[in-house]
Amino acid sequence: MNTDSLIIFQKNLIRFYLLEGRIYPWRIDRNPFKVYISEILLQRTRADQVVPVYQQLIEKFPDTISLFADFNRAIPIMYPLGRSIRLDYFQKGLRYINEYYNGQIPFERKDLLSVPGIGPYIESAIRLFGYNIRDTIIDTNVIRVVGRFNGIEIHPEIRRKKSFISIARNSVPEEKYVEYSYGLLDFAEKICKSRNPDCNNCKLATECLWNLQKRTNKI
Length: 219
Description:
Blueprint: H1 3-20, H2 25-28, H3 32-42, H4 47-60, H5 64-69, H6 71-78, H7 84-101, H8 109-113, H9 120-130, H10 140-149, H11 162-171, H12 177-190, H13 209-218
């Protein structure tokens, strides 16, 4: 996208979050530990389901050391969310953090990726939302919004394409990148949906190459 389109894209997503962003406890009170917990719980799970589980965990276990030490007591709290594999990776990840990083969640990319259960998305989320480091989250929502706006054909493997990763990274503003990133996720949920996107109420519609191409094909 050109510079003008990029500025429009960034400003509108930041504004969208500030005006219409979803409110979750892990967004209001952020630190690396809380972001780590929220991202583990949010995997393939609706955020509204995660809220009560997250709040119970934070209340009972304030850090990785206490959570790992009493993990058996934490399991019944998380069990309603399903996916037992999540519990296995979570426990292994906590053990690894305690053994190799003295209970402190690392911020370097390579160190985060060495932790069991932390992949590229959670690694970027911890750096971005937990440490306030400018980084790029890439999931299906980000792929859809960034891809459509730039007129890129979307397919399952695109998240691994260097060209797309470069576009996504270059789209992140130098300031207010946390608000931008939350806005991107919420915009995908409320406006730029996978099915029946609300293009009529989209502030980006006049600059969105996917929308312009769609309209052109109808003529």
